[in-house]
Amino acid sequence: MRDEMLYTNTSMLAFVGDAAYELCVRLRVSASGAFHSERLHRDATRYVRASAQASAIKAMLDGLPEEERRLVKRARNKRITTKPKNADPVDYKWATAFEALLGYYCLTEQSEKLEAAASAAMRIIDIDEAINREGGAAVISESADKSRNTGLGGGVTAIAAADARWGIGFEGGLLADLPGDRAYFRECTLNKTVVMGRKTLKSLPGGKPLPSRTNIVLSRNALFRADCEVFSSFDDCASRLESVDSSLVYIAGGAEIYALFLPYCDECLITKIDAVLPADSFFPNLDADGAFERVWESEPQSENGFTYRFTRYVRKDARAAGMGIGYE
What we know:
The protein has 328 residues and is an alpha/beta fold. The protein folds into 2 domains: 2-133, Ribonuclease iii, N-terminal Endonuclease Domain, Chain A (Orthogonal Bundle); 156-320, Dihydrofolate Reductase, subunit A (3-Layer(aba) Sandwich), CATH 3.40.430.10. The chain is 43% helix and 17% strand. Strands 1, 3, 4, 5, 6, 7, 9, 10 and 11 form a 9-stranded mixed sheet that branches. Strands 2-8 form a two-stranded antiparallel ribbon.
């Protein structure tokens, strides 16, 4: 009976999850220091609207285990017997799925996941509202031109494979299957800290973080997952990286993440593919960037019909300062 309730009765799960999430929300808004009942109710309503919950579960979905994604799908696809009040029917279905997931955590006594999911949902809602207030401006970063005079400093390394036009990806995947490049990437980043965006994480095998590395994900959506560190703002991510030796930090994409961190990179390891390939995302053109110079290039490699070279680009002022970057 217990299994039937947990895996098939999504209405029961949503009933429990609704109450559990409401409690989490009320505890959060009560901690704000506001004691007027109308203010508390208004603040709580921001997080419990169907549209807000729908936005949260959509952002969290990629980070859920397969079993939990199936539960969300089953709850979302359940037929609505009564017309929801003051809510779009599609949003209402997503919100029901979100509540079912929290109900599942509650009834399976996974209190840490329940609290983490509720907190992640509220962060996502806060971020969405901030983006809307700022007319769609990206909350993830102040600017890719941000001064390098921050606590993060320099010394970070970007690593990517790019074609002749500096294309790095197409429709969510890499441009070419190059086992040698994958081995090179692994050799460079093993036991290091790797920074990437949500889409790059999703493109990895099984959507799982890279093994034997510290995986840090920067995303506008505060993803809920326990197998990597996720930050929804550039400043928070940069603060985390301050505790890491910058020479052990590798930026692994995608395009926006590369652009954000390039001002902090003193070295870029680029696998240059000798071809022009279909691409919809690009690495900054270092050949046209006066701040960098190419200091090393390997012999040509050939695999799967492609010719490519490993190259190293170094920031000129870092090289002049003798910051310990090796050259071959």
